[in-house]
Design brief:
337 residues, alpha/beta, Alkaline Phosphatase, subunit A, 9 helices, 13 strands
Length: 337
């Protein structure tokens, strides 16, 4: 596979691609030596002898898929474009509250009538969560049971692989989709996608085409607009009949996010919510362009949450429920008439 890299300027960066900001909250820099995480196995939902109890019903609302993995991904792969959008650090409680308050109208047009699905993250910081996601371990529904997965790589004994799961004989779903004829493209956001060092190049190197620049990072007030501009440009360059797998790591919600709240001097739940309102205002262009190009299956979710002082915790890479609990949705965007 080709490895095209768009490098930004060298900077002193942590997990979020941000320089050291002395007035920011302490968010447990993900490159630090200590490990505050709790043990959370990627395979915790795989049981060799557990039966799969799977309800195929779902909420039918606009173009949302609903909360029960009702789509046969084997029918989707090869016929539809696919998009994976991770809203880095977005908390479920904040996402659902803004949905209910009508503060995210773009997302509300596409989500089920009940809003976001509550799920448990597969990791408690960006690198761990995305390593799991790219291996097919998306956030798990936050309710008991064995929950089928939309995508998987070959994995003996997994009861979460069903007839509706698209299974790849590959080390990750990016490579698997490329093997099915997809052009794979990455629009990076936080520092683990910045290609400024080996660890920041690991995930982008999975893709045929990858892009990162400082304007996509957490310190740029208009990062989501810049990311979506890049996504629209690459979609415009791609031959219409070629299927696309587009990954975007949206950085705007990650600390520091106080610049989305006028007058704020520290990051907070309120600035986190304001960042989501900003992101929502940008997503309409992307969803419209996807729908114009081809029928598109979209997974949009957080990779993990983050704490703003709950029980004395700040940041992520720790085991608090606000870090583990994330919003998740699957959407089907219509093809052109």
């Amino acid at each position: 596979m080709s490895r095209n890299r768009a490098h930004g300027a060298d900077r002193d960066q942590g997990d979020d691609g941000a320089p050291d900001l002395t007035d920011s909250v302490d968010h447990n820099d993900d490159f630090s030596d200590h490990d505050d995480s709790s043990d959370h196995s990627d395979d915790s939902n795989d049981h060799d002898d557990d039966p799969v109890d799977h309800d195929d019903s779902y909420v039918d609302h606009d173009n949302s898929v609903g909360h029960d993995n009702s789509v046969d991904l084997n029918a989707v792969v090869g016929s539809c474009d696919i998009a994976l959008i991770t809203l880095d650090t977005l908390r479920y409680d904040v996402a659902q509250r803004l949905f209910l308050e009508g503060r995210t109208p773009t997302l509300a047009r596409h989500l089920p009538a009940c809003g976001w699905e509550e799920r448990h993250a597969p990791g408690n910081f960006t690198y761990a969560a995305h390593a799991a996601i790219f291996a097919g371990f998306f956030p798990t529904p936050a309710r008991p049971g064995v929950h089928p997965r939309p995508f998987a790589v070959s994995f003996a004994g997994s009861s979460t692989i069903t007839a509706k799961t698209c299974v790849f004989d590959a080390p990750d779903i990016v490579t698997g989709l490329a093997g099915r004829g997809y052009h794979t493209a990455c629009i990076g956001g936080v520092g683990f996608f910045n290609k400024q060092n080996p660890i920041g190049s690991a995930f982008p190197s999975l893709f045929d085409e990858s892009h990162w620049e400082p304007a996509f990072g957490v310190t740029d007030r208009d990062s989501t607009r810049h990311q979506i501009d890049a996504a629209l440009a690459l979609m415009g360059r791609l031959e219409a009949r070629r299927r696309l797998f587009l990954f975007i790591n949206v950085s705007a919600l990650h600390q520091p996010n106080r610049h989305y709240l006028p007058g704020a001097t520290r990051d907070s739940i309120a600035s986190h919510a304001a960042a989501l309102e900003y992101v929502d205002g940008q997503l309409g262009r992307l969803f419209d362009a996807m729908g114009r190009r081809a029928a598109t299956f979209v997974v949009i979710c957080a990779d993990h949450g983050t704490a703003y002082g709950e029980d004395g915790y700040t940041g992520h890479r720790l085991g608090h429920e606000v870090v583990w609990t994330v919003p998740y949705a699957e959407l089907l965007l219509s093809a052109p008439a």
